[in-house]
Structures are given as C-alpha cells and as structure tokens.
C-alpha cells in the first residue's frame, strides 16, 4: 500500500515573524529558506510583498537563490472592492514578486465580510473569484487561504462553502481551511473537513493556530479526514499563541500516522532545524518541546532510568535518533544506581568494576543537590566529583587563599583586583591581577598563577556565566548557584559552584573548570 503524501507549507518567514519577540532580518529569512529547502519543505511562504519594504526586497533577492525543490510563495489578500483586479496594489505586488506560487487569503466568515471589509456577501464572493481567476490567468499556482473558515462555517455554513466553491471554480489549486482564531475543537475540525470534502473536489489544506493549545491536534485530524496540504511554522512561532508546530506535526504524520512528508533520510535533521531557527530568531529553545527539545528524551527518576537501560521503549515513544535528538540521563536528588551507572558510562568513567562505591556516590550527589548544586548542566563538575570519590583524581593545584579588592574612586571608576595564593607542583604561587569585575579579576589571577606550570591554560576561555538565586526568600543572604561554561578549540564543558557568597561560588566553578581541562588534556599524568 502506497504511503499517503502530504505537502508541507512553511510560513515561519511570514506568520512566524509575527510572533511577539521575533524580527527576522533579510539575511535571516534567506538563510532559513535555504534550511527549509534542504529539509524537504515543499512551499516556503516568504512574506507579504504588499505590506513592507523588507518583504519586497526578500522576493528580489531570493530570485538569485537556487532551491532543490521548494517553491517560494508570495502572500497577499484578495483585491479591494474599490479597485479593478488588474490595478489592485496588492494583486500587483503578488505579480511583481515573480514567484511560481501565490497564497491569497479571502474572507469566509460573514461577520468579517460585513464588519471588517464592510462589503456585501456578493461583493466578497466576486472579489475572491476575480482575484483567483486573474492570478491563474497569469500562470500562478494559487493557494486560496479561506480565512476564519471554521468560525465562518459554524456561523453560516452555506456561505463559507460558497466562498470555497467560488475559489475552486475560478481555478484555485488548493483550498486551505483556516482556524484563524485558533478556537476550534478537534472534533469540530474533523466534522467540518469531512463536510467540506463532500462539496468540493479541489485538494484541501489546513492552517491552524494554537490559541486553544490544539493546533497540532487539529492539523493531524484534518489530514486524517482528507487534507493533503499542511501549513505551519518551525517551533510553532506565530502571532498570539502561535501556529501549528511543524516540528511536532511532521514526525507525528510521518513516523506514526503513515504519511510521507519529507524524504525519510531528512527526518533525522528535524532537531537541528528546530534549534537553527530558534538561534536565528534569538529565542531560547524550549527544553520541553516534543521530539526536538533538550528534555524530550531526558530521564531523571531512578526507576525510569533503570527501565530505559533495559529497554528504551519503556519510557520513550520513539528512538530519539529518528528525529536527530539524543537520550539524556539526568543526575539529581532523584537519582539512583541506574542513573549513576548510565552517566558514568556516558562520561567514560568505569564504575562497573567499582560498584561498591556507587551508594556513596549516590548519597554524596543527593546531599550536594540538597545544598543547591545542580549537575544536570554541569557534567564537568560531576565527572570530577566521581573521579575524586573513586580516588582517581590528581590534584593539579591547592588553594592557600584569595582576596578580592573592589575600589570606586571619586570619578566613579570601579577597579577590581584579585590576589591568590596557590600551591602548584609543590611551589607556592602568590600573584595578583585586575579585571573588569571581581569574577574576571579572579579568573585572570588564577590563570596567571597556573599558566607558568600549565601553559595550555591559555587555550581555554570562559564562554558563559550564569548566576541563579537558590533560596530567594533569604534576600541578600541567599545561596547562589554559579554555572560556568568553558571552551577551547575542540570542546565545551560546564562546571558549577554554590555558596552564600557569589565570589566563592564563582571560585568553585572556575577552579573546577581549570581542573577538568587539565585532567582531560593531561590524562591524569604528571608532567
């Protein structure tokens, strides 16, 4: 039996850009379009050329790009009642975009026809007919977006259907049923799609918004009841609560419901695509995003981990690798023996031959988590801790003391200076350094003391620094957790420190970072 095929229509660059915190540059839109094409998206809606100069420029620039199979689509509305179709500015902008396909929206809800457009029902039908027929006569593939269709159908089914039939008669290639307000329930979508399919022959599409949290579900049920064209955005970006999230829609359709959306080998690139678009959008990628989130296949409870280690199907609905994600086992106060064994193996630490130490390691981790440490995002500190408890860690340096001086002069200039005393290879190092702040000064002083003995320290640098208040009710006496990300030209690692004193917490994370790096590059051998 041949797998049913679905055409994917991505509107991240148009509908997605209407999300409250997103503003794509021209270059952003071009880069994303190429990634969508590489992934296998069939239609990429580039924007509304009649609405702003950036979108006009996008359609000019995108003509010079080569796409493997995706069609770039220009978006716009049906003609205005006061213009002849050939003279309508919006219709002309669609033609000037010079795309093979256009997406044209028209009103199908009487409420909008009479209150928003302020035209008669007959005038609206004629606007739809003229717009679609004119664009078809110009050789365009016309995708008709029936705006507010589900609300319109529930209000006046006969008129909403008449709008579709007029567009179909005029030559529309696809009729897209839009849940523009995102308020329809899944059973309503199923019933209405079934009813529409009995009245029109043109292929049907679905465009769902997420205002009721049902955009993905409504999209799936629409396809299962006859829609063959799916619109949505990467990560569900869009106005208000967003659009149907293609990162959930695609794997649900392709991996579970038996529909062909993208080439089978491309589905494993889904997680990378999702993260790429969130980076371009400058938004934090949601950890709990289905399929593509960092936590989508993360396991924390000891019983869960024990079961997953025996058979991943016990707590995973698909193999994470199928969508380019990976399994993660978290270490926390909920951890058990299975978590530690899995994590140690992942870090390359042998615990199988040293199982009698596992209860001690579990207990120590739980105590530290109780004090505010978090090792889920600090695997460098976790590996150091396990090595120390196994007596496999070589101490590269020992603190004898440090002092931080912060001075503000009459002109308002602030100066930070750190002094450290450290024992390195049985030699006492006493040095000082300045920095733009106390943590930077401490970092510089530590480097100054260590580089003499370990010159490779110069190759690593601090790439991120985060502070989280653990017990906020204690106000300025609260404990803080400092998470540091460090990098060299080959690797990145994270370390953690906790204290009521932010400098002490920073010191812990900094020294763990240096220790982890030295342990890795020197492989525990004295040089």
Can you tell me about this structure?
- The protein is of the alpha/beta class.
- The chain has helices at 26-39, 53-62, 89-96, 110-117, 121-137, 149-155, 157-170, 186-197, 215-224, 246-256, 270-281, 302-310, 337-347, 358-371, 379-389, 438-451, 502-522; strands at 4-5, 7-10, 43-47, 71-77, 101-107, 141-147, 174-179, 204-208, 229-232, 259-260, 298-299, 328-329, 398-408, 414-424, 427-435, 461-469, 480-487, 492-499.
- An 8-stranded parallel beta barrel has the order 2-3-4-5-6-7-8-9, surrounded by 8 helices. A 3-stranded antiparallel beta sheet has the order 13-14-15, with helices on one face.
Major sheet characteristics: 8 strands, parallel, barrel
CATH class of the largest domain: Alpha Beta
Q: Give the CA-CA distance, first to last residue.
A: 66 Å
Please tally the β strands and state the result: 18
The CATH architecture of the largest domain would be Alpha-Beta Barrel
Strand order of the largest sheet: 2-3-4-5-6-7-8-9
Poorly predicted regions: none
Counting H and I runs of at least 4 residues, what is the number of helices? 17
Spatial shape:
elongated
Please write out the topology.
Blueprint: E1 4-5, E2 7-10, H1 26-39, E3 43-47, H2 53-62, E4 71-77, H3 89-96, E5 101-107, H4 110-117, H5 121-137, E6 141-147, H6 149-155, H7 157-170, E7 174-179, H8 186-197, E8 204-208, H9 215-224, E9 229-232, H10 246-256, E10 259-260, H11 270-281, E11 298-299, H12 302-310, E12 328-329, H13 337-347, H14 358-371, H15 379-389, E13 398-408, E14 414-424, E15 427-435, H16 438-451, E16 461-469, E17 480-487, E18 492-499, H17 502-522
Parallel strand pairs: 1-10, 2-3, 2-9, 3-4, 4-5, 5-6, 6-7, 7-8, 8-9, 11-12
Antiparallel strand pairs: 13-14, 14-15, 16-17, 17-18
Helix pairs in contact: 1-11, 5-7, 6-7, 8-9, 9-10, 12-13, 15-17, 16-17
């Amino acid at each position: 039996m041949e797998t049913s095929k679905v055409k994917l229509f991505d509107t991240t660059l148009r509908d997605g850009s209407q999300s409250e915190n997103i503003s794509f540059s021209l270059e952003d839109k071009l880069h994303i379009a190429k990634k969508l094409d590489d992934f296998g998206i069939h239609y990429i809606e580039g924007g509304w050329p009649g609405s702003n100069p950036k979108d006009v420029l996008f359609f000019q620039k995108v003509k010079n790009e080569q796409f493997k199979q995706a069609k770039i689509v220009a978006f716009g509305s049906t003609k205005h009642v006061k213009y002849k179709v050939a003279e309508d500015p919006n219709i002309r902008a669609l033609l000037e975009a010079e795309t093979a396909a256009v997406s044209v929206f028209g009103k199908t809800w009487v409420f909008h026809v009479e209150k928003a457009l302020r035209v008669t029902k007959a005038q609206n039908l004629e606007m739809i007919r003229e717009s679609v027929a004119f664009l078809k006569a110009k050789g365009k593939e016309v995708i008709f977006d029936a705006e507010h269709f589900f609300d319109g159908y529930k209000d006046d089914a006969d008129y909403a259907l008449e709008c579709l039939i007029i567009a179909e008669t005029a030559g529309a290639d696809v009729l897209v049923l839009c849940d523009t307000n995102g308020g329809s329930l899944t059973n309503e979508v199923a019933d209405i799609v079934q009813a529409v399919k009995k009245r029109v022959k043109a292929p049907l599409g679905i465009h769902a918004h997420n205002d009721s949290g049902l955009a993905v579900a409504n999209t799936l049920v629409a396809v299962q009841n006859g829609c063959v064209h799916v619109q949505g955005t990467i990560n569900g970006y869009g106005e208000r609560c967003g659009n149907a999230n293609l990162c959930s829609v695609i794997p649900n359709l392709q991996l579970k419901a038996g529909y062909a959306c993208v080439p089978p080998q491309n589905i494993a690139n889904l997680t990378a695509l999702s993260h790429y678009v969130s980076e371009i959008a400058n938004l934090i990628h949601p950890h709990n995003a289905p399929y593509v989130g960092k936590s989508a296949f993360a396991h924390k409870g000891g019983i869960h981990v024990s079961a997953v280690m025996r058979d991943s199907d016990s707590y995973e609905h698909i193999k994470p690798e199928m969508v380019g994600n990976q399994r993660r086992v978290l270490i926390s106060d909920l951890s058990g023996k299975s978590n530690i064994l899995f994590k140690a193996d992942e870090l390359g630490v042998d615990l199988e031959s040293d199982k009698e130490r596992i209860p001690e390691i579990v207990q120590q981790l739980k105590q530290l988590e109780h004090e505010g440490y978090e090792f889920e995002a600090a695997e460098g500190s976790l590996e150091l801790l396990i090595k120390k408890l196994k007596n496999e860690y070589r101490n590269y340096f020992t603190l004898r003391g440090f002092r931080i001086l912060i001075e503000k002069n009459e002109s308002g200039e602030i100066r930070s200076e750190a002094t450290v005393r450290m024992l390195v290879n049985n030699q006492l190092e006493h040095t000082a350094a300045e920095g733009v702040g106390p943590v930077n000064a401490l970092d510089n002083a530590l480097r100054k003391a260590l580089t003499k003995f370990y010159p490779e320290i110069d190759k690593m640098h601090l790439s991120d620094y985060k502070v989280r208040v653990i017990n906020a009710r204690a106000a300025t006496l609260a404990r803080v957790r400092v998470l540091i990300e460090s990098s060299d030209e080959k690797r990145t690692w994270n370390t953690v420190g906790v204290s009521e004193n932010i400098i002490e917490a920073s010191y812990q994370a900094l020294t763990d970072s240096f220790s982890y790096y030295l342990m890795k590059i020197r492989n525990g051998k004295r040089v």
